[in-house]
Design brief:
Elements: H1 2-20, E1 52-60, E2 70-77, E3 82-87, E4 93-99, E5 107-118, E6 127-139, E7 143-147, E8 161-173, E9 175-182, E10 185-186, E11 190-196, E12 199-213, E13 217-224, E14 229-235, E15 242-246, E16 251-252, E17 255-259, E18 265-275, H2 278-283, E19 286-300, E20 306-310, E21 316-324, E22 329-336, E23 351-355, E24 362-365, E25 371-380, E26 389-397, H3 410-415, E27 425-432, H4 438-446, E28 455-463
Parallel strand pairs: 1-7, 6-26, 8-15
Antiparallel strand pairs: 1-4, 2-3, 2-5, 5-6, 8-12, 9-10, 9-13, 11-12, 13-14, 14-16, 17-20, 18-19, 18-21, 21-22, 22-28, 23-24, 25-26, 25-27, 27-28
Length: 464
């Protein structure tokens, strides 16, 4: 039996070597035996012999939830030639191989995630369909990726709502913005300002129908017309239906930064959330200390800086500062340390597109960027009998012209007849202007996404 097996193995190798002489330089999927239709094994495949090499591998963590989605990985070479494609589930380990030395250039990786759900609740007969494609170009041959849950909220704790209560904050001098949160995040609320009859600049603020949680600790912060920015933690351990606080007893934040929104903006937002440590970040336990938002009828020049406060007993701070002009949106996000300098754009930014197609996207811009993502979309709710269809395709890269992506395999297009790739149109481009280069971004997304990184992101967003 051992001799017979050895003979069969050598004969197989002989056939493989001789057949390869008439094939093209890159091994392509066999039309009769499509790679996407093969069952996916949980154990990595191993090369048959020394004539092949692994050009890409993908590990999916066992606790990464794929129960509600169809998931595909599709690989093209730099010229758009299809190399391979496979579906995957949680716990899979995928290996992609070619004949040795047949692939010398970088590759493009596309993820397709499909989810369908009831349009108007589980009892609805209508189904919505969401197709999300993400392509990452210029990926180094031999890369090893891992798909895992993000650290933030990966072990989320949600407190139980056990009732409602009313909050009354007295003696606030001309309140402008106020924020109420607990460790699960920001509260939505309706509020009423009641001016004091003897002092029109002093108000009592009443917040109705706040959720009463099983964990009774809350944070209230307020920003006033006189540039006071104060906070107070309070408890409702006795489950009272109404709590009263005195603004005169509120505390100053441990440190402040000043932010002057650039001129000629039509909207802005400032958001700050604070987390005790990485364990709190995993659990999604943090307090929202600021959430300011303004939309104007026209362009506004803010002449005074806005003061943002931070607390020293939190190690991780998430800060978002964004504003919108007639031409673009600016977004700054710092996750980790307190910001020191925001660095707003100092001149008018522009984007001129000469070719909107996803195959040959071309543009001119005066934005100095480190990487970008452009998105094409087909979005329609055709009628009340068909549900909602949304197909988006985002392309990540660091070059002015991304390479031809290649076609999505016919098997996948036939499996999802509502994919509508021939109907997607250009929607937007986001340019990242921070110091994180494209390769660093890829590593953060697909090698160490379950680890905390202190990150500063700045971006300019243009939409059609």
């Amino acid at each position: 039996m051992k001799v017979a097996h050895s003979f069969l193995f050598l004969f197989s190798v002989f056939l493989l070597v001789n057949c390869s002489k008439d094939e093209t330089s890159v091994e392509k999927p066999n039309e009769e035996e499509k790679p996407g239709s093969k069952p996916i094994e949980n154990e990595p495949e191993t090369p048959l012999d020394s004539s092949t090499e692994v050009y890409f591998s993908l590990d999916i963590d066992a606790d990464y939830d794929t129960s509600l989605t169809d998931n595909w990985i599709i690989i093209h070479d730099k010229d758009g030639t299809l190399l391979d494609y496979k579906s995957y589930e949680a716990g899979d380990n995928l290996i992609f191989e070619v004949l040795k030395d047949s692939l010398s250039e970088n590759i493009s990786i596309t993820r397709l995630v499909y989810r369908t759900y009831a349009s108007y609740g589980e009892s609805s007969p209508l189904r919505d369909h969401n197709y999300r494609l993400e392509s990452y170009v210029n990926i180094e041959k031999g890369s090893k990726w891992r798909i895992s849950k993000k650290l933030w909220g990966s072990e989320r704790i949600r407190d139980t709502i056990i009732g409602e209560f009313k909050l009354r904050v007295e003696n606030i001098y001309s309140p402008v913005y106020s924020t109420v949160s607990n460790r699960n995040g920001l509260f939505s609320f309706s509020s009423t300002g009641i001016p004091h009859s003897d002092s029109p600049n002093v108000f009592d603020m009443v917040y109705d129908d706040l959720s009463l949680f099983s964990t009774p600790s809350y944070m209230y912060s307020c920003y006033t017309k006189f540039y006071e920015n104060k906070y107070l933690f309070f408890d409702n351990t006795e489950k009272k239906s109404e709590i009263t606080l005195d603004f005169n007893k509120f505390k100053n934040f441990d440190s402040y930064i000043e932010v002057l929104i650039p001129p000629n903006h039509i909207a802005f937002r400032i958001f700050v959330a604070e987390f005790k440590d990485e364990n709190a970040l995993k659990a999604g336990i943090g307090y929202t200390s600021h959430d300011f938002y303004e939309v104007y009828n026209g362009e506004i020049d803010v002449t005074e800086p806005i003061i943002i406060g931070y607390l020293d007993n939190f190690d991780i701070h998430r800060t978002i500062i964004s504003y919108r002009t007639q031409n673009f949106n600016f977004r700054y996000e710092a996750f980790g340390k307190k910001p020191e300098e925001i660095g707003f754009p100092k001149y008018e930014l522009s984007l001129q597109i000469s070719n909107e197609s996803i195959e040959n996207f071309e543009f001119l811009t005066n934005v100095d960027y480190s990487r970008k993502v452009s998105t094409w979309r087909y979005l329609i709710d055709e009628n009340q009998n068909s549900g909602f269809f949304n197909t988006s395709w985002s392309v990540y890269d660091d070059n002015d012209h991304h390479p031809f992506l290649g076609k999505i395999p016919l098997e996948i297009q036939e499996k999802y007849p509502n994919l509508n790739l021939n109907k997607i149109i250009y929607e937007s481009t986001r340019f990242y202007t921070d110091d994180t280069r494209y390769n660093e971004f890829i590593n953060q997304e697909f090698l160490n996404s379950d680890k905390f990184h202190s990150v500063v992101q700045k971006s300019i967003y243009f939409e059609k």
